[in-house]
Amino acid sequence: MANLKPIMMLLLGAMLIRATPAYADQELIVSAAASLTNALKEVAGQFEKTHPGTKIVCNFAASGSLLQQIAQGAPVDVFASADQKTMNQAQEKGLILPASRKNFVSNILVLIAPGKSSLPLAGLGDLALPEVKRVALGNPETVPVGRYTQEALTKAGLWETLKPKFIYGESVRQVLDYVSRGEVDAGFVFATDAAIAREKVRTIFEVEGHRPILYPVALVAASQKKALAQGFLDFLSAPESAAILSKYGFGKP
Amino acid sequence: MWTDIMNFPMGLTPLWLTLKVAGVATLVTFVVGVNLAFLVARSKFWGREGLDALCTLPLVLPPTVLGYYLIVLIGRQGWLGRWLQETWGISLIFTWQGAALAAAVVSLPLIFKSARAAFEEVDHSLEDTARTLGLSEAAIFFRVSLPLAWRGILAGAMMAFARAMGEFGATLMVAGNLPGKTQTLSLAVYDAVQAGNDAQATILVVLISTVCLVILVVSGKVLKAGYM
Q1: What is the ipTM, given to two decimal places?
Q2: Do A181 and B194 lie within an 8 Å CB cutoff?
């Protein structure tokens, strides 16, 4: 037992060091749609570089889930959703500052299949083929990409027909994961998500028949760091951010 | 609110599914867990403690880790999953059977641990006496060891059932969250809260609490009343 003591001391020391991180002047919490994961992390890194002493904490999930977190008092400073509906709900509940709201990127809805798949999918109607057993989409209750999918499939008159094949993902990234693992035969994601998993999934075609996909961003009304948060919002439209966002395939609003 | 509560099917589908999943899971863990526990408690073999640790592992591992193992194992690309698919045309991912498997893995340690302890408490000399009287090993198990260890095993089974009912993490990863197909009560609660549907969440929460309470009371009575 006695020879454990140095190890315990070491562990204790390590914990103390971890408990006192390099002092960051300001910490900004950004809740953003799951589809923004890779791009926004890079933008945040760039922002931290140009604003020394600032730390951006990114919180990625389905827009609907993020809205509930903010409604329940999560200490968020900036909110970016993948659709207007979620942001409208936030605005109706007085959770964001309407004046700060703006659209900062656009996206495209695509149908993807596992890389190895050889299913003959040329149009949405082909999803009704018996070979297609499972189709993944975002849960329309909380996931914007699911809402766009529902809109497009309803317009094509396929929503009810395809329903038995649906596998609902809790975020766009879960849909992407299901397709890249080959657990489903096809799935609906944003073009930017398909681009991230280029080696594992095949983009079959762009899906139309839904409202334009515009991502709004706004300051959270309860934020204690509005000046810094506004700085981040402005940075999102700056040329260096625009370059990063377009590198990941996001379009201009 | 009251009209919502009267709207039975909404809460009943997940409830029925939960009972089905937990019931099948408990049945599987009961057979597997009791046999493994008897093996570990009564035989000496190389790797015995290793087997014990392996059966206890799901108790300490995060359900997400178990979920990942299961996806790798029984997913369409997994080595067991591919074999199942090609040989039998069976796919467990996104099915209630998959959810039952996840729940079974997660609840196995509860029944295994109590059964092992129960078997170890059985007086060796009773089993030995039966042996001298010429009973076969199988007969000793069913007529001596099992009846004497019964209460501990039953208590473990109750705990396993309760744990299986509340399974969330591994189930979500393996079976998804499909209303009417794999959406158990715990997943339905998560869904309702995520969507900001507090009224529905309240109904489901009350429902699951009531069912669990009833199970606890009934199991307590059964365990006390029966010298089974």
Answers
A1: 0.73
A2: no
